[in-house]
Amino acid sequence: MKIVKNYRCKMKKNLIIYITTIVLSILYIGLLGNLFCKDLDLFQNSDDIVKAKVIEIIDTDLNEYKIGNEIHKQTTIYFKAKLLSGDDKGEIVEAAQQINDLYAGQQEEITDGKKILLMEMNGTNEADYIMTEYVRTDNLLVLGIIFLIFLIVFGQKKGVNTILALVFTCLSIFIVFIPAVLSGHNIYVWSIITCLFIIVMTLLLINGTSKKTLCSMIGCITGIFLTSLLTIIMTKIMHLTGFVDEQSYYLQLADTNQTFDLIAMIFGGIIIGAVGAIMDVAVSLSASLLEVYEKAKEKDKNIKSLMKSGITIGRDMMGTMSNTLVMAYIGSSLSTTLLLIIYSGSLIELLNREMIIVELLQIIVGSFGLLLTIPFTSLICSIIYCKLQKDN
Fold it and tell me: What is the pTM (predicted TM-score) of this model?
């Protein structure tokens, strides 16, 4: 009877924490998002772009022109389309798609039934609208829905909580963190706040309140703190300017009322990029050590023995998670890396380019954060599991 009563009390406590986490997450995102976004003029030209569906190809116009000794072709396809959004939704309009082989990455020629984005030309072209892009979000949305269904089927309750955590994570970055940066707030502070929010919110939603969650949180926060400290030190030592690519220059030239701290941008990119891997290591290690502790013989349930097990388990995690970071960073900038290798005059000049240095810094600092998370999480788990006999 006492066991049942304790179980019910624990379930009630977890439910309260669960609901409180959701409510506080909504308040955090809603209030701060409103605060940071209210003075930003983003997506001012949204009304100029409308969604449409091609219903009929009218004509194709092919023009050839010469530049030097090369002959280039410009194809203009005229078509009718039905507007699917905007003030004139439902109307049939005439539009055009322009394809010029002088420029790389040209669109495929449109066909009937394709969904596209149109921009009104206001009488400056033979057609009323010009095509800007294919609508790609619809297919992406379908894939996302399929992923969520599989997540719920395989994960069940944890799958639902994972979706909630993922939604709150994305909203915290795109509605709070990015507007905070665009509004001129301290990037260092808001990078850390965003990481802390993601850590606490995710672990409480997915794992609830327990010794395992507490150990994971402390391990994650320690890993993020050490990664942040190391990043700040290394950006000072390496004399970085923050101008790592053309986007850095464009950001400084952007039509905003404040100047961006590009060094702080490197800091934010590194710790936000590393927080997921650090959480993965801390949670996996906490769960593994709890299992080891519960299955161990009574004589082996001590801090030293559990700490040793944590280091052993952590060694296997370290290799795979470091590879995860390396592949993620290289994969995200593969084209740029290839271009730099092709046009660099020497290896030493290539390796000292700031863009390459920042990529290497992200990899090394992120991996260092993972490495340091392992012993600290192992120590915290050993102390809490061995010293505290009852679940929180």
Answer: 0.82
